[in-house]
Amino acid sequence: MINGEILKNAIISGAHNISVQKNHINDLNIFPVPDGDTGTNMSMTIMAAAKALEDYDGETAGEVADIAAKAMLRGARGNSGVITSILFRGFAQGLKDMEEVNGKNIAAALGIGVDAAYKAVAKPTEGTILTVARMAYEAGVEASAENSDPVFVWQAIVDKANDALALTPELLPVLKKAGVVDAGGKGLCSIFEGMLCYIKDGEIVEYEETQALTMESFDSAAAEFDDDIEFTYCTEIIVGRDPECTLEPDDLRSFLQTIGDCVVMVNDEEIIKIHVHTEQPNVVLEKGLTYGQLLAVKVENMKEQHKNAKKNNKSTKKSKKKKESFAFAEPTEDFGFVAVAAGDGMKTLFTDLGCSNVVSGGQSMNPSTDDILEAILGTPAQTVFVLPNNKNIILAAEQTVPMVTDRKVVIVPTRTIPQGMTALLNFDPEISPESNAQLMMDAAHGVGTGLVTFAARNSEFGGKKIKEGDIIALENGKLTITEKSAVKAVLKLAKEMVKRDTAFLTLIYGEDISEEDANKAYEELKDKYGSRADISLVKGDQPVYYFILSVE
Predict the structure, then answer these.
(1) In Å, how far are 4, 61, 77 from 68, measured between CA atoms?
(2) When you count CB atoms within 10 A of the terminal residue's CB, does the N or C end of the chain come out lower?
(3) Angle, to 10 degrees, between the axis of helix 302-319 and the axis of helix 215-228?
(4) Helix, strand or coil for residue 502?
(5) Beta 504-509 vs 478-483: how paired, if at all?
(6) What sign has the CA pseudo-torsion 126, 130, 136, 141?
């Protein structure tokens, strides 16, 4: 039988296991656009449960499942994280009021979660985390009919989950073409496997936290490294070998080791390439000349570089903003708005359009359900309209609806920033919330969204080979253009998107685009389309996307 203590440690072990594997799971994402990272989202979701259970010292399995489910619901991020939280919410419902549970209880409870997860997704797709969860549950029911021992049943669940994961490429051709399995399914297998480690062997998977590269950690590391620099100059030279020189290159290597460290030397019949840290770069050059002519020379002061890095990072650290916090507000007004967007310019834009609160987030930085909930409760309105502005945030936003009791929450499922802007502009205070939601989405569907970003990974789409770092453009979510510059990409995108009846163009430029490049793109758009469309330029400061183009 499994009591509260066993289930608690099993969930913690599952959380640790996916946290260890999250980067591998992230790498399974096949679309080249920077995204919310499945492994990270699922890991953060279940780690919320692990943290909530740390201080629990009871022995009731039902209580443990309930605590975990509530924490995961509030901490859910991205579609994969929300689905995981829904699975555990159903699991908790199935174990309600139970002190100890057997294999049959576990399998039945998992089935409630699977049913809820399928219902939560508008168009359930096989070959995803849903398939893995369903097939695992079915195997658990079959196993429990044979033997209700929880170890036997959970082993069957894990085995079938992995079998189902292996099938995902056959169910989704895009996975098969990329040669990978479904990332969400892999994440769920990792959680289940981590739980099995404790249920079967009584061992919690060791948690190896990957420290985020923060400015504070970099600054500290720079200072520490500065103290450890024994030699000041990083010296690199390339020597064109003199055919008549009889000196042995190995003797040169031995000599360099007497005057410095980090010696690397590569040589062939024509050149000798040298890298060394030393206090005597002049001696390195002189010694190199005895072997032939100097073809290239580079000398850098490493101590000065690290001093400058420390200064720059201290400056950045001072200007770095803390995560926003929304104070509770009584619902005194008739209606209010919450939007999700990233970048100071974006926040100002949505505030100017009437939003009371803007939650920082978007592509590659999905806010949790709790982040959105806090913004809703900080909006002084009896009806709060929420604009997720990203397809991977909609499900997390929808989870807030039953969590709020003192005001009405209406999710307007906008999938892009332009859709969110258009939805706000079409709000009508004279009609009902339900009618407004429909009106706003009808308007949102009429706006085209163009995005210019970079390829986060090597890929192949539409017969085009895409390399990591390439500039890519998407028209309404479909990858259509690869280019060498962001400005050229957005101009090509406009050419594809602007129609005869286009009346408005809004060009929003991100934090990695200079004002000069933004104005260059804006002026070219005005020259081509200014006679028939109203064209606006907005500084959004958004990350990830160099340009966002709204066409309506």
Answers:
(1) 11, 11, 15
(2) N
(3) 160
(4) coil
(5) unpaired
(6) negative
Residue 424 pLDDT grade (very low, low, confident, very high; cuts 50, 70, 90): very high
Q: Are strands 448-454 and 459-461 parallel, antiparallel or unpaired?
A: unpaired
**Residue 67 CB-half CA count within 13 A:** 23
Residues near 370 by Cβ (< 8 Å), separated by ≥ 6?
A: 74, 75
| Residue 30 confidence (pLDDT) | 65
- Which helix (H) or strand (E) is 299 found in, with range? strand 292-301
Q: Which of 28, 73, 33 is nearest to 184 (CA)?
A: 28
- Predicted TM-score (pTM) of the model is 0.70
| Neighbour tally for 421: CB within 10 Å | 27
Q: List Cα–Cα distances, 151 to 98, 161, 525, in angstroms.
A: 18, 15, 65
The pLDDT assigned to 223 comes to: 36
What is the average pLDDT score of the chain? Answer: 86
Instruction: Choose among 84, 142, 144: nearest CA to 114.
Output: 84
In whole angstroms, what is the distance from residue 187 CA to residue 48 CA? 16
413, containing H or E segment: none
Q: Are strands 478-483 and 292-301 parallel, antiparallel or unpaired?
A: unpaired
Whether the CA torsion 8, 9, 12, 14 is positive or negative: it is: negative
Mean pLDDT of 460-481: 79
